[in-house]
């Protein structure tokens, strides 16, 4: 199997697993958790994370005053048709779906970290000097982002098992810094790939005799 075929296979696996995660995530998007699992990922405090989980385990109206009290992101207002469907589901079903989303994300994180690793390695091979060294660093960042995602998901599964009690400060910090590390690494990888892609486009735009 050639490197291009392996890269395409990794891309397809990333797309399939990512589509499944998005599909399950839609079933936990309430008016007070409009982004589903991302609402939990970017909760600004342990109390906000607890309110997100409690919303899945109950109703948005039960936590509206608490959200304002603790400075959490406000709900989107009146739920749309899709959010009404989610909010009409039994709380146990929403919590089950949240756990299912996290378990499915393990497959997605393995797929995307392999894909990004392969893509960064391929891009770095076309470069020289300092850009090549940056690309090699980005290659190592890809599996690290996947490991940070594993750490984040384990923390969030513990969040969900606590439900009413919610995460303590230490557990919240574990999940929060795992999220920040993951997205920071992915942002650096995206910046490198964008720069490498732009450089490739510039090279292709030049006459053949001037390409280096």
Q: What's the topology here?
A:
Blueprint: H1 3-25, H2 37-41, H3 46-56, H4 64-69, H5 81-87, H6 91-125, H7 129-162, H8 169-205
Helix pairs in contact: 1-6, 6-7, 6-8, 7-8
Question: How does the overall form come out from the CA principal axes?
Answer: elongated
What portion of the residues fall into strands of 2 or more residues?
under 5%
Label the structural class. mainly alpha
The share of residues in helices is over 70%
The radius of gyration over CA amounts to 21 Å
The string of secondary-structure elements, in order, is HHHHHHHH
Largest sheet: none
Relevant terms:
mainly alpha, 212 residues
How would you summarize what this structure contains?
The chain is mainly α and 212 residues long. Helix content is 75%, strand content 0%.
Account of the protein in words:
With 212 residues, this protein is mostly helical. Helix content is 75%, strand content 0%. It contains eight helices and no strands. It has helices spanning 3-25, 37-41, 46-56, 64-69, 81-87, 91-125, 129-162, 169-205. The protein is elongated, with a radius of gyration of 21 Å. The two termini are 29 Å apart. The model has no long low-confidence stretch (mean pLDDT 87).
């Amino acid at each position: 199997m050639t490197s291009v075929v392996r890269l395409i296979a990794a891309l397809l696996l990333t797309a399939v697993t990512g589509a499944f995660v998005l599909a399950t995530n839609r079933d936990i998007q309430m008016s007070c958790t409009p982004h589903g699992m991302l609402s939990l990922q970017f909760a600004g405090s342990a109390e906000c994370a607890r309110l997100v989980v409690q919303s899945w385990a109950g109703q948005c109206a039960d936590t509206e005053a608490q959200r304002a009290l603790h400075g959490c992101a406000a709900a989107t207002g009146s739920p749309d048709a899709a959010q009404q469907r989610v909010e009409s589901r039994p709380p146990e079903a929403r919590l089950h779906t949240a756990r299912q989303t996290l378990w499915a994300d393990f497959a997605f994180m393995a797929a995307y970290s392999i894909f990004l690793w392969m893509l960064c390695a391929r891009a770095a091979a076309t470069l020289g000097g300092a850009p090549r060294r940056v690309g090699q660093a980005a290659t190592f960042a890809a599996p690290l982002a996947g490991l940070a995602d594993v750490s984040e998901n384990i923390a969030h599964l513990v969040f969900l098992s606590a439900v009413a009690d919610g995460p303590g400060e230490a557990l919240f910090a574990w999940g929060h810094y795992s999220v920040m590390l993951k997205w920071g690494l992915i942002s650096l990888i995206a910046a490198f790939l964008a720069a490498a892609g732009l450089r490739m486009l510039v090279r292709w735009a030049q006459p053949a005799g001037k390409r280096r």
